[in-house]
Amino acid sequence: MPSLDLPSSSSLRHWPAAERPREKLLARGPAALSDAELLAVLFGTGIRGQSAVDLARSLLGRHQGLRALLSADRARCLASPGLGPARWCLLQAALELARRHYAEALRAGAVLTSPGETRRFLTAQLRDRPFEVFCCLYLDNRHRLLAFEELFRGTIDGASVHPREVLRQALAHNAAAVILAHNHPSGVAEPSQADELITQRLRDALALVDIRVLDHLIVAGPDAVSLAERGLL
What we know:
The longest helix is centred in the middle third of the chain and has 21 residues, at 85-105. The radius of gyration is 22 Å and the shape is elongated. The N and C termini lie far apart (69 Å). By secondary structure, the chain is of the alpha+beta class. α2 (35-43) packs across α3 (52-63). The chain folds into two domains: 12-100, Orthogonal Bundle (DNA polymerase, domain 1), CATH 1.10.150; 106-226, Cytidine Deaminase, domain 2 (3-Layer(aba) Sandwich). It has helices at residues 21-28, 35-43, 52-63, 66-71, 74-78, 85-105, 115-126, 163-172, 193-207, and strands at residues 133-139, 145-153, 177-183, 212-220, 223-226.
């Protein structure tokens, strides 16, 4: 029986048209492509001895999956054979475009009536960040979104959160309520004693000017823990 394996050439031009990632995407849509094929479309070309698909498969194997590849730090990525600065920039740009695309769904003026919607938005924004990010959703008295801002960035261990700056920004947006959020790069979403303490400090500071803290969400990977649901607000 003749072999059904694809040619070993490093050029996708020698592949059957129906198997080339770009043509496959045009004919069947992006959902029909594997992770490696989607990466190959981004890369465009491979390296000596490897097609774009082979290179993508190698990178996915080396990093044990797409999520780990996209969230790996620059030094580790650039240590991967075939993944130089140009391809690393492509991956980061694609990831940021996805975040911004999702952010537009929660545009200014949207009413936050669903805790699930807020969770999905914040998870998309904060998961897999290599450093801690503290951010705020500013809402009017009808819980319509006024703005979303990243206020503080830290290391893998934490971010310094300054209540004065949170208060200043809330007043600048004329907010009636805020939702606080930050991520745990450790991958564990459980609130720490420090998380509870800063939540209480921010709640008390904002209450002085009649601004309510509706929730504080902690994101770690796909999980998000609500301090309001835990009775910690």
